[in-house]
Amino acid sequence: MKIHESIQEKCQFFPPEEMRPKVRALLQQKGFWDDWDKVYEVFRYYWHVQDKANLISRITRCIMDTARELQSIEVLDVGAGDGEVIRDIMELLLTETKRLSMLDIIEPSSSKRDIATRILPHREYGGCLRGAFQTMDGVTGRSYDAIVLNNVIYHLEPLEDSIPHLFNNLRKGGSLIILHINNNFDYEPIIRGIGEKQGVSLDIATHTVPLRVFLGMGEVIYDANMINMFKRFYGQAAQLCSNPLSDDEFSALLKQCSEDGFFDHEHRLITARKT
């Protein structure tokens, strides 16, 4: 059984209409992200290398599907972090399309934005990075073939305010590409409903994508920080769930859902194409 399925059986979550503002409030709590950078680096180190490559390939293919004949593909990455994932995507995009594409990034954290601008190849030197901005205001008036939201949709609440702006930045035929943890929260009907309300015609497809994460062959190797991070990923907080699992219970559940030293930190990949 998948980890999100087991959690759904064991935990009583608040209704979806209550969950979204609760998640937003939780993410904005002072100290919520403190000291997570080093833990997250270890988490990324634990990703199954083949699943990571498949994830990059799937997102890249979604971007390629928006390509206009003989023109550069223009991509916006919202919440780019330190730029590592989008760099892999842009490198594969270059290899597959055999043409230079353009990239803008939005990253609120100045420290992460600085790292991203150092590791991404700049447009003026023949690379892809055209602009790096703190907010969406920086891309006002620009149009894109693909807008990528890689595990950041939770930070864009209220979606009824942020998603219409993203639709405005999409060219006809362009796609909003959303990757998020499969944690029993379905964003597809929300995106579809916002599109209908805004009069934006969308062709939406959702797929599940595996992302195995190393857990250990014997006992669970995670320390308390890693367990706490995964519990937050899966809504194990009193603000979201009436009976959140303890650290020991969550560790046992991870072990129960693991196979050959890994458990599937499954994601959903939503592609909303503007038609």
TrEMBL record:
Gene3D superfamilies under this entry? Vaccinia Virus protein VP39
Q: Output one GO MF annotation.
A: methyltransferase activity
- The highest taxon in the source lineage is Bacteria
Instruction: Provide a GO biological process annotation.
Output: methylation
Q: Which InterPro entries match?
A: SAM-dependent_MTases_sf (IPR029063)
Sorted alphabetically, which keywords does the UniProt record give? Methyltransferase, Transferase
UniProt cross-references to Pfam families, sorted A to Z: Methyltransf_23
Q: What is this protein called?
A: Methyltransferase domain-containing protein
Q: Which organism is it from?
A: Candidatus Kentrum sp. TUN
